[in-house]
Design a protein that fits this description.
Layout lengths: L2 H11 L14 H4 L10 H18 L6 H10 L8 H11 L2 H6 L2 H5 L6 H20 L10 H12 L6 E7 L5 E9 L9 H10 L4 E7 L9 H16 L3 E8 L4 E3 L8
Length: about 260
Amino acid sequence: MTRGHQFDDAQASLFPCAPARDVPRAGAARRNPEAAPATRPPSYIRDHRKRLRERFMAGGADALPDYEMLELVLFGAVPRVDMKPLARLLLETFGDFNRVLSAPRARLQDVDGVGEAVICQLKLVEAAAHRLSRARVMRRPVVSSWDALLEYCRTAMAHGEIEQFRVLYLDRKNVLIADEPQARGTVDHVPVYPREVVKRALELNASALILVHNHPSGDPTPSAADIEMTGQIARAAEALGLALHDHLVIGKARELSFRAEGLLT
C-alpha cells in the first residue's frame, strides 16, 4: 500500500460514521453513468485531493467553487475515489452547496452514488454549521447580536423544504435563554398553538418572545394565516405580561420582520 493510501485511510478513520470501504451503491453507474464517481488512477486521486486541501487551507472557502467545496467534504466519506462527478451531480440535483447540506435524507438517498457514509458526512457538516451559529447567539443579549441571530435563523431554516416554526425565549435582560422548535408542517403550512407557546415561556421564566418560521417557497411575505396566528400569540402573551418582540419569516434569500413591516405593534 502506498503512503498516499495510508493517508486516506487515516483521514477516513476520523469520521466514525464513514466506513473506510464505503462506496456508492452498487448499480449506480449502470443506471446513470454520471452518478458513480469515475475511475481514476490512485496517484491522480491522491495528488488531486492534496492540491484541493492545500488551496482550501491557503485561501479558505472563497478559494473554491461550490463543487470543489462539496468534493472536499465528501473526501471524508469515501476514500480513494474520485468524488468530483458525485459532487457535481448533487449540485445539479439540489441547486447549490447549502441546499445539498440541508436536503432531507430521503431525497439524498434517491441520488445515484449516495450511500450512508455520504449522507452522514453531509449531515455532520450541516449540524456543525448550525451548532456554530447557535453558539454565537445563545446566552447573549439579542440587541447586541441581532445580525448573528438573523444569520443563525438563515442557517437553520432558510433551505428547509417544509415549514418549521420555532420560538426564541428571552429573559428580562433580552438575553436569549432558549430556542425551541414548536412544530413542523408541510411545504406551505405549519400548525401553531398559541397556548403552548406562552405556556412554555412561563415554564422557562421567560419575559419575551421572538417567533421565527420559514417559507420553503423562498418568498418571506406573510400569509393571512401567519398574521392571524401572530396576533393570537401577541394577545396571549400580553395577557400574561410577556412581550412579543418580533416575528421573523425566513425566505431563501431574505427575511421579513413583522415589527419592521408594521405588522406588530
